[in-house]
Amino acid sequence: MYPVLNIYQQSTTVTEITLMNQGCGSDNICQSNLQLHYKFCSKMTQNDRNIFKSLVRDEGVAVITPSDEEIALEITVTNRNGDDAHQCHSVIMLPDTVRYSSVLFSVAEEDIGCTANGNGTLIDCDLGNPLRRDTEVTFYIMLTTSGISLNTTVVNVTLQLETTSVQPIQLIEALAKVVFELELQVNGLLRPSQVSLGDIMKGESAIKSANEIGPSVQYEFRITNLGRPLKSFANASLNINWPKENSVGKWLLYLVHIHSEGVHTVPCTPVDEVNPLKLVKGWDAPPRRRREAKLESSSTEGLSIIPSRRKYKTL
User: Fold this and answer.
1) Is there a contact between 128 and 112 (Cβ–Cβ < 8 Å)?
2) Beta strands at 172-178 and 61-64: parallel, antiparallel or unpaired
3) Which residues fall within 8 angstroms of residue 235, CB to CB, at 6 or more apart?
4) Which DSSP category does 310 fall into?
């Protein structure tokens, strides 16, 4: 409030002091009309200027896709058709899933500023004393998504306006959905592209070496992430089903070895599916490599070399 002191000196030397609130009604009571609007945004820089774009919405609710980039909660406070709002504050309460980073204002305001508590879950923004009638303030609370996990489905931010002017103000909940989007691409390669299993297939008890199961087959799977990095908030897995046995329990494909190439090793489960009969001590067993090379040299891309009299299946 801005008090105005009117001092009248009378002959009896009695001084009269009258307190009046500028920007208030005729009854000297400030009745503000504060309104708060919010939206979740992404931030980009263009020509040294910050550009904020609303996040994609699903059924009217903003969708957050966790990443290394910050998201912005745009808050606009208006005071239309009301008196000045004295000691006007906006209090923002954050969940543990998002972290406060900084605050940006749409225009330079000397009388506006925000402070946060130690863990960044409570931000108090001073919007002016007073926030004049028929004015508005827009600012952006910058948030990181490092606390979001695969179990997070919703981000709920609580917003509260406060003023010493007369106005009942309710809490507002700013809601956003959390969606994990992964652009994964899987490519497969088989060497050789065709194999002959032989006329006689043995059961497990009759097999003494891996050579008796059949020729060597190598499957190669290449997984490429075309989108944002997974980081720590998500894991990707590849489920592989292969024809291990036929309908009567005879071996078709015996898993000898799993090898991975890339930035880190790839653990596979269950581990007892790899070489369960302990028939092979290593992937580079000489007899199997020679036979594999022979089969590859006899195959032609796009041309079947299996005689028509043999039975064959595509697996």
Assistant:
1) yes
2) parallel
3) none
4) S
Phi/psi for 60 (5° steps) reads 85, 0
Q: Does 192 sit behind a cis peptide bond, omega within 30 degrees of 0 on the bond before it?
A: yes
pTM, two decimal places: 0.60
Residues 6+ apart with CB under 8 A from 129: 86, 87, 88, 111
Distances in Å between the Cα of 32 and the Cα atoms of 3, 13, 108 are 17, 39, 23
The C-alpha torsion from 203 through 206 and 212 to 214, rounded to 10°, is 0
pLDDT digits (tens, 9 = 90+) for 302-315: 333 334 444 545 54
Looking at the DSSP bridge assignments, the partners of residue 75 are 38, 139
The amino acid that residue 275 corresponds to is: N
What is the maximum alpha-carbon separation in the chain? 131
CB distance 100 to 70 below 8 Å: no
Nearest alpha-carbon partner for 130 in 171, 104, 163, 91: 163
Give the helix ranges, DSSP H, for the chain. Answer: 286-297
> What's the token pair of residue 50?
């910050």
Q: What are phi and psi of 286, to 5 degrees?
A: -55, -45
**Residue pair 73/174 in contact by the 8 Å Cβ criterion:** yes
Nearest CA to 90 out of 123, 54, 118 is that of 123
Quickly list DSSP for 12-47: T--EEEE--BTTS-TTS-----EEEEEEEEEEEEET
Cα 196 from Cα 289, distance rounded (Å): 16
Cα separation of the two ends of the chain: 82
Is it true that the peptide bond before 270 is cis, omega within 30 degrees of 0?
Answer: yes
Beta bridge partners of residue 179, listed in sequence order? none
pLDDT digits (tens, 9 = 90+) for 119-169: 889 999 999 889 998 999 999 999 998 888 878 899 999 999 999 999 999
